[in-house]
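Technical appendix A lists one of the benchmark inputs used to test multi-chain prediction within the project. The record comprises two sequence entries:
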Amino acid sequence: MKGGDLPTTRPQECARKSSEQRRKLDQAFAVACVIIACLSLVVLALLLSAITFEGVRFLSFQFLIAAPGPEPAEAGIGPSLGGTIWVCAVCAFMTLPVGVATAVLLEEFKPRNIVLRWLHGFLQLNIANLAGVPSVVYGIIGLTAFVAMFGLFGSVNDPVLELGASYYDQFVSEGDLVAFVPVSGPQAPETEPRDGMTAYTSSGQPFKMIVADRQTFDFNDPANQKNMKRTFFTDSEPGRVSRKSWYFIRIPFGRGVLAGSLTLMLVVLPIVIISTQEALRAVPDSLRAGALGMGSTPWQVVWHITLPAAVPGIMTGAILAMSRAIGEAAPILMIAGIVYIGSAPGNLMDDFSVMPLQIFTWASRPQAAFHSLAASGIIVLLAMLLAFNAVAVLIRHKMQKPLT
Amino acid sequence: MIRASLIACAVFSILVTVAIVVVLFSETFVFFTKPFPEENGDVYRVSAVEFFTSANWSATSAGGTRHFGIWSLICGTLLVTAVAMAFALPLGLITAIYLSEYAPRTVRAFLKPTLEVLAGIPTVVYGFFALTVLTPALKFIDEGFNVYNAFSAGIAVGILCLPTVSSLSEDALRAVPRSLREGGYGLGGTRFDVSLKIVLPAALSGIISAFLLAIARAIGETMIVALAAGNTPRLTVDPRDSIQTMTGFMVQMASGDLSNFDVAYFSLYAVAATLFVITFSLTVMGQLIRKRFREAYQ
């Protein structure tokens, strides 16, 4: 026993004090322990009560849907609530398959070969180390790898690949009708208005443009007056606008939802892997042995026996990892920056904000009213986390069957 | 086929590590070697010697010339970490000893969930707590505290790290076999004697590794220091002062405009690389200590 040298000097030391003294010391330490252990309870109570006290003022249904405007009384957390749901859903969708697959490989297909065993150990150590990397570092990696894609694929304004976006030149007619003329891309040359050109109204109705010269146009001609809505002058200046469908994709990703989700994936992937490994380890070996004995292949054992038995544990771990993702602000801050977001994202490339980031923005403003808003946001965030964790506890209770 | 896709997923985590190292160090290399054109027509070159030896940090050209001396940021980080650890390490360890050696089952049943809840609260909430509750309380006690100060940020980081320390230390303490404790009691030891003189030394490797992980966590903590510790990089040991940490600088840069690829943008990578090297070596050290110095009992 390596620790054998530890108690050797102790008996004399103990003998120096009377047993009465030692008993008193023991009791004093026990009391100190209770006080210190209760400190965490006190801190939690203080934290929650301070936030409730501060944040209850602005809490209403309106707060959940409104945009974070400059007026504290009317501001809300709507866009960032939508952003949180988008980001976390996409993140979960990508993280869970990869995380569970990695854990299955590490736990169920342990190699016997010495080189592969070394690789296996290296992978395990690597995952433990990835879990310790500060999330803000992942943010900067995401900024390079996902937002800009190392600068290999052009810039966000001039992307290599784009799907689901259409670009228009916008004109305003003399009858104040807004007309859209389709163009090929964001960098296409400006459209020159020509007579008879097809344009679309904002509701998508096509019509033929009438283009006239400002100098020779007769405003009093009744025929011209009738067509005023469709009339444009040759010198009218177009404005470039874009319409994006829900499946809009571009490479590089830019500061959008997908880049944020991928970055969060890097943050929570080690957590998912480690918790899934623990869940798989908790499945008794007798189940695997039984299935193998009945002639299953190793993969059949994993798919039909081990994974179903580990589902409650995997789900619990996944939900805890997701609640970490919901609360994570630093990597999202690196990706999304502090910009005003007026509506929830509509596609994977849309600019976005998440609740912790909105809370940070409010909390870093000096005015007290915004601190109250931040506290209200925190209440919503904590309620969401509480609901998540309640689901985790429920799953643990409902689905856990005794396996031995 | 299936195995190939499993391996592909596992390789992903290696790729992430490679990406971190390659991105951070290649961009840091650019930071040290590329001449950066300034607005007034001059060319700014970053000196690696200045970066690693000086404590003068002003990344934006707003206050005259730029200076990149990482030590004022490291100093800020260490100050916050020191305050946090002075709070979290003793309290976390005593909580762990209490939970593992003293606590009756009923107390455990509500103390453990409390700690789990504390661990699950988002860090931005702790930042808000530090800024709006701890700082006013500290200012009430002593007028010398700045609105943004290292002490309140440190306390909040300490609260955040407390569950990490206590749960990892408790695991280490619980792994010590019963027979050792029974031997201690058999020799007439009190619970205090047994916990502190037998169980604690036996679990020391696990506890030190827990401490190192907590320190790494405190160094990498971002939102609390961004909210409560301020944005003034300076070399100081007075925790009442406003300081700036490495993570705080990264948040400050990200909150502004990151699209212009100037020298301040690339300094972000140099700071991130420094942060990564520090936390990574602490985590690796923690892993090695736990593996190497583990006392194996039957």
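Confidence is low (pLDDT under 50) at residues 1-6 of chain A. Residues 338 and 361 of chain A are 7 Å apart (CA to CA). Comparable benchmark entries are summarised in Table A2.
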